[in-house]
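Lab notebook, bench 4. The sequencing result for the construct came back, and we need a structural model before the next group meeting so we can plan mutations. Quick request posted to the team channel:

Model the 3D structure of this chain.
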Amino acid sequence: MLKIVVLILLSFCASINSFGNVAIFGGYGSNLELKSNADIQMISEDINITILRSGLYSTGTAKWFSQNKAHYNCRFKLKNLSDKEISIQVGFPLGSNENWYTFNKRKELYQVETISRFNFIAGTERGTYPIKFYPYDKKQKYSLIFLWDMKFKPHETIDLLITYTMSGWQGLGSTQKRPYTWKPYKHNYLRLLEYGLSNTFAYVTTTGKSWAGNIEKAVFTINDFEFDNMITKRGILETTELDPYYGKKKKRFKDWGNKILKRIEPTGWNKIINNKKPVIRWEYTNYVPEKNIEIMYLQTAVPANIEQFNFLIEKIKAQNEKYNQNLEFYKNSPKPKILSKSDIKNIADAILEFYGLKTNNPEITEFLNKQFWYKHGTNLKIDSEYKEFLLSKSR
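Done. Here's the predicted structure in token form:
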């Protein structure tokens, strides 16, 4: 009887760490290792992701964020291609390394506590599987691994259902196109315009190539209608007086813009109506996993009004002054920094481009070509007074 370990890597994160959709592992517990196998094919996968506002506030390192979550409902059709019975241990890691998960400061991880925290369930129409939990694999490449045993009769097809709920990535994000490059711009002060506060939710597919053959049909659906309506009105911080960190939020982020951008990857998705609500959907046949599914909400630092614009200018001046005071410590920088009228024009033009107003300024072309929103602008509305203010700086 062939004994292997199959790790279904349905991951949920927006960081640049590598995850996988479905991969093959050999070994057990802390000795799990990534392998390959040609006996079992994934015939189909149907992934439904519903983004939720939890209403709970973090007590960890990101105290100013509400822990928005997503619920995953995943259906797989798995087929034994061989004429022999196969027993496998199927696994589902939620992180990319030992230190990714929220338990990294604890010495012990409890089975029931961890499984219940993520509401993790795996089963078929006949019932659910007993779940085992391991914190990470042998190479500590994957973490929060949920495991259970499955048995396939010769040529048997099993419909597998997996559901769980977990938080997305919350933290600093960027409007740069992927892959990110951090090479300085000609006018590096423009970099201050591309940062933002992000909520990102993802389903990473790429290691699904480890199954036998291609996936005959794959459907990925993101249900974000209610979440989209909420976050575009209230912002990433979802600030209310009920938030115990309300005062700190207002003080810390009062000079940030309040415009929300949404990035959906990869391209090729359609917006369709499902149960009278719009959803985002990708549908593939003869599917070879290549690009990961990701939706990011980003509250940008682009100034949204005159007051915030002036704050940004003063911030850059203060940074330049600090640089000039310590010029002797900066090698290969023979001259002090100043913020000229042409620099202010570049900043104003970049903001106008953000709102879809073309400026034809060659000085900011390098910056614009790096931004995912640049091709069509953001189609966001700009206050008429603010628009005239920026145009006056642009002239």
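The helical segments are 111-117, 225-234, 246-253, 306-325, 341-354, 365-369, 384-394.
Will bring this to the meeting.
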